[in-house]
Design a protein that fits this description.
By secondary structure, the protein is α/β, with parallel strands linked by helices. The strands form two sheets. It has a six-stranded mixed beta sheet, with helices on both faces. The chain has a single domain (about 5-250), classed as Rossmann fold (3-Layer(aba) Sandwich), CATH 3.40.50.300. The two termini are about 25 Å apart. Mean pLDDT is about 90; it is low at about 255-260. Strand 7 (about 170-175), helix 8 (about 185-200) and strand 8 (about 205-210) form a beta-alpha-beta unit. The radius of gyration is 18 Å and the shape is globular. It is built from eleven helices and ten strands. Helix 7 (about 155-165) runs parallel beside helix 8 (about 185-200). The chain has helices at about 45-50, 75-85, 95-100, 105-115, 120-135, 140-145, 155-165, 185-200, 210-215, 235-240, 245-250, and strands spanning about 5-15, 15-30, 30-35, 60-65, 70, 90, 170-175, 205-210, 220-225, 230-235.
Length: about 260
C-alpha cells in the first residue's frame, strides 16, 4: 500500500516541555491505524500536529510529518487551511460542542463546503443528502433542517463525521469519536467509519483509550505511553501477542466492541 502520512522521529513541545518524543509511524492508503494509550499519553497531540493545530504554545521541535510530499510543520498557515477539510478531515471528541447552536446543520454544511469550493446551497444539500444516504442516516431532510440542539448527542457526533468527509479527504483523523456515546451509537459510528473506507478508500487514524473500539476497526495499532511509542504493529499482533506489560494492562479491560 502507498504511504500517505508519515511521522518521522517527531518531537512535540509545549512551552519548551516535550510531550511527544521520537515518534515514528506511517499511515497507508485505506489503512485504519488505532492509536491507544492512557489519558495524557499524547494521543490527541499527534493528531493536532497533522492539522497544524497545536496552538501558540505547541511546536514540532524535531522530525517531520510528511503528507503528499509536504512537511506539515514547515507549511504556512494559508497552505494548512487548504489541507484542513479538503485533504485531511477530522472528527472531534464532542462534535456537538463544535457545532454552532444557532445555525441549522444545513447552513453549517454549506459553509464548510463553500470554504473550499464554489457551490450553490442546492448543490451542497444534494451532496450532504447523498452522503447521509450512503451512511444509512434516516430522514436526511430533517437532519439538514435541524439545529444541533434538536438532535441527540449521538446524531450530532454522526453529523460530525459527515462534516469531516464532505470533501472526501484521503485522510480522516478521529479523536475519541465514540468516548461520549452509548454502546449502540458506538456501533453505528464504527460501522460508518468502515463504510467511509469502503466508499472512498479513506485512510483513518483513530485515537482512543477503548481497546474494544480499536479491535473492531484497526488494521494497525500504535500504543503510546508518556509521549513515546511502546508498541507498534498489526492489530492481530498487538491484540493477541502484546510484548509490553503496559499493553497487556490496556488489554485487560473488557472491550465493548469486538471485530466481527
Amino acid at each position: 500500500m502507498k504511504e500517505i502520512l508519515t511521522y518521522q522521529s517527531v518531537e512535540i513541545c509545549f512551552n519548551g516541555t516535550a510531550v511527544i518524543r521520537d515518534t515514528s509511524f506511517t499511515l497507508h492508503e485505506g489503512e485504519i491505524l488505532g492509536i491507544v494509550g492512557e489519558s495524557g499519553s499524547g494521543k490527541s497531540t499527534l493528531l493536532k500536529a497533522a492539522m497544524g493545530l497545536l496552538g501558540n504554545d505547541g511546536m514540532v521541535t524535531r522530525g517531520d510529518i510528511w503528507f503528499q510530499e509536504k512537511d506539515i510543520p514547515d507549511l504556512p498557515e494559508k497552505e494548512l487551511r487548504q489541507i484542513r477539510g479538503e485533504k485531511i478531515g477530522m472528527i472531534f471528541q464532542d462534535a456537538g460542542a463544535s457545532l454552532c447552536p444557532i445555525r441549522t446543520i444545513g447552513e453549517q454544511i454549506y459553509e464548510s463546503i463553500s470554504a473550499h469550493k464554489k457551490i450553490t446551497r442546492a448543490e451542497a444539500k444534494g451532496k450532504a443528502l447523498d452522503l447521509f444516504e450512503k451512511l444509512y442516516f434516516k430522514d436526511g431532510e430533517r437532519i439538514w433542517n435541524s439545529y444541533p440542539f434538536e438532535l441527540s448527542g449521538g446524531m450530532n457526533q454522526r453529523v460530525g463525521i459527515v462534516l469531516a468527509m464532505l470533501m472526501q479527504p484521503p485522510v480522516l483523523l478521529a479523536d475519541e469519536p465514540t468516548s461520549a456515546l452509548d454502546v449502540a451509537v458506538q456501533r453505528q459510528v464504527v460501522q460508518e467509519i468502515l463504510r467511509l473506507r469502503e466508499l472512498f478508500g479513506t485512510a483513518v487514524i483513530l485515537v482512543t483509550h477503548d481497546i474494544g473500539v480499536v479491535s473492531a476497526l484497526a488494521d494497525t495499532i500504535l500504543v503510546l505511553k508518556d509521549g513515546q511509542v511502546a508498541e507498534y504493529g498489526s492489530a492481530r499482533q498487538i491484540l493477541q501477542y502484546p510484548e509490553k506489560e503496559y499493553t497487556q494492562r490496556l488489554l485487560a479491560a473488557v472491550p465493548k466492541l469486538r471485530r466481527a
